[in-house]
Amino acid sequence: MTAPHHLTPFVASLALALAACSSGSEPAGPPPLEGADIGGDFTLTGEDGEDVSFGDFDGQYRTVYFGYTFCPDVCPVDVQRAMAGLKRFEESDPERAAKIQPLFVSVDPQRDTPEVLREFTNAFHPRLIGMTGTKEQLDEVVADFGGTYSIGEESEAGGYLVDHTRFTFLFGPDGEPIAILPVDESAEAVAAELDRWVR
Q1: Which cysteines are joined by disulfide bonds (predicted)?
Q2: According to CATH, what is the number of the domain 43-197?
Q3: pLDDT tens column, 69-115
Q4: pTM
Q5: Domain boundaries, the chain
Q6: Are 78 and 103 in contact (CB under 8 A)?
Q7: Distances in Å between the alpha carbon of 113 and those of 133, 144, 179?
């Protein structure tokens, strides 16, 4: 899966910023996604069946991943690395880690009921919150966050795949985009990136 064209410069900036960083936790410069036109408030249905808004967590850092629980491969791996990285950061600096609220947005509302979402998120981190919405809501939210998704053909057995962008974004306390977490690398890399930007 490739990055949307309007995100490509920011992805390149992220790679350069990571390469330039020292082994310490101090940022080498401005956040890679500083000024990027991604994000914004939204309201979806949470894993408890109640409305959850991005703005509910103003004042906290937020990680956001778009995927679906029936994903056979990439979603569980991405979420596992992101949450394992958060756990490592919690072990090293619980005070700063407590400022992070992880969010999982399902782009498969047909199958990802609140109960299914809750079981999925609980398997990875006790603070991870799952949410989803109508197709119209998801179309708007995914576009606002620079992503895409499309639901594939249903098989004879009734299953289907959902193609989607795989970024795990880190947003700041004011909802500003900061960085893309390196979930394609390792939990250690994710923890290091959180350590670099969360204050």
Answers
A1: 71-75
A2: 3.40.30.10
A3: 999 999 999 999 999 999 999 999 999 999 999 999 999 999 999 99
A4: 0.86
A5: 43-197
A6: no
A7: 10, 23, 29
